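protien #1 (seq + structre)
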Amino acid sequence: MFKRKNSLNIYSKIRIYFWPKKGFLRNFSYYWKRLIRIPDTSFSISMGFSVGFFVAFTPFFGLHFIISGIISWLLKVNIFSSIVGNFFASFISYPLMAFGMFFISNENNVEGWFNYFVYFAKTALPIFSGILIIGFVLSFICYFLINYVIEVFKNKLIRGK
């Protein structure tokens, strides 16, 4: 019933996965509407979003969704909003971390374990400590912003009924 008349080839499926046919703005608005319409308290949704937003600024590449889900589960806040917040923050955090690593790290030849740890301490630790401060401030701002938007939306829904 919901299948295409002409199925897509593998190239088209990969292209649509990385560059959606209707554009990124449509995907953004879809997830934004899903986030606002979650049937949960505004505290839970906004706290989950800010947890996910903060976790995206940590140096654990590839584990952000898992870590934000676990932290949200432990704090008993909305897990889906945490994943959405992590998704949105990745567009900010990854370029900042790449920019920092590109301009601060200038040693390319690292020999031996001790030199590797020295190299890590000189380059990665300052970048990640700075990026975590930025992540904390932005997630704090996101909490209040998302909380306000959800409260306004839910009050509009209640008055509309």
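ok now protien #2
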Amino acid sequence: MVFQGEFYHTIDVKNRLFIPAKFREGLGEQFVVYPSADGCLFCYTEEKWLEVAGQIEQCSGNMEDRTRQRRLLRGVATVTPDKQGRITLTSYQVERAGLEKDVVVYGMTGRVEIWDVNRFNAEMGDASATDLDMLGVKF
């Protein structure tokens, strides 16, 4: 499934967040939430997470690499949406992504991202031809 679109929701005092039905369908009955270095949370299907985690795990040649792995894997959690379509995030995940109240759930092709709305708006701008050129995208 290709994830696309952006949805605005709020996170409640119990760190619960609604995930849109179309994203839940694609992510499956349970999925993995990963605190990314980008300042947001990535949501992966369990299958895709195994690929990502496998890439991280392959880089374990020495103690420094293992320390990096631990930092990269800190805060990862498998979640199961409740009957209302909400997931519960850990305090670490909320803090790491800077989630306050208003949140954007954003489809990013192969994953879903969860952003604090202010951080998201600060990061985003309008797409340009330069963006396409830098990524090597040809139409």
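The first helix runs from residue 21 to 27.
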